[in-house]
Amino acid sequence: TLMIVFLISSLVLYIISLMLTTELTHTSTMDAQEVETVWTILPAVILILIALPSLRILYMMDEITTPTLTLKTMGHQWYWSYEYTDYESLCFDSYMTPPLELDPGELRLLEVDNRVVLPTEMSIRMLISSEDVLHSWTVPSLGVKTDAIPGRLNQATLMTSRPGIYYGQCSEICGA
To answer: Which cofactor is recorded for it (predicted)?
Structure first.
């Protein structure tokens, strides 16, 4: 894809430089409807040919048919609720730790009172929604960012490759 974009950009730069350095001698080339039609349709066809394989791969990567674990996440103002749906009544709320209660070495605005525990090397399905206003469930080190919208259930899939503590953070202004 990068080579196609590079070739198209080089061709456009070459044509622009020719138009700026040469003198137009034939005014009949200014009214060429066929040329205008070709340079309108050809880029659209190239973009479609680039996008179709990418979309197929994107949808194949996003869908997990049999996840190992499903975790339902509900956004509230100033905290998140989590529910392990594969287990009987295993749910909890996760509040941010106030700065005055932090232990040495803990990160301000990232530490919580109840952390989510997830297995490594297994497919995990996150079901994300909100109860009150728009939120954004984000874990940058896992490459996951999904909006939590009231009345809508969004799905994200993730897989951790190594054990550790992954911090989620607020990445947008949440509100109505």
So the answer is: Cu cation
For the domain made up of 69-160, give the CATH fold.
Answer: Immunoglobulin-like (2.60.40)
* Cβ pair 95, 78 in contact under 8 A: yes
Can you give the residue ranges of every domain in the chain?
1-8+35-63, 69-160
Average pLDDT of the residues in 35-43 = 81
167 in Cβ contact with 107 (< 8 Å): yes
pTM, full prediction: 0.65
Q: Which tokens belong to 116?
A: 């989510």
Query: How far is 113 from 130, CA to CA, in rounded Å?
Result: 20
How many of the other CB atoms lie within 10 Å of CB of 23?
Answer: 4
pLDDT in tens, 89-139: 899 999 999 999 999 999 998 999 999 999 999 989 999 999 988 999 999
Q: What distances in angstroms separate CA 49 from CA 1, 42, 105, one per listed residue?
A: 10, 11, 51
Q: CB–CB of 129/74 below 8 Å?
A: yes
Half-sphere exposure of 160 (CA within 13 A, CB side): 16
| Neighbour count for residue 50 (Cβ, 10 Å) | 13
Q: Where are the alpha helices (DSSP H) in the chain?
A: 2-21, 33-62
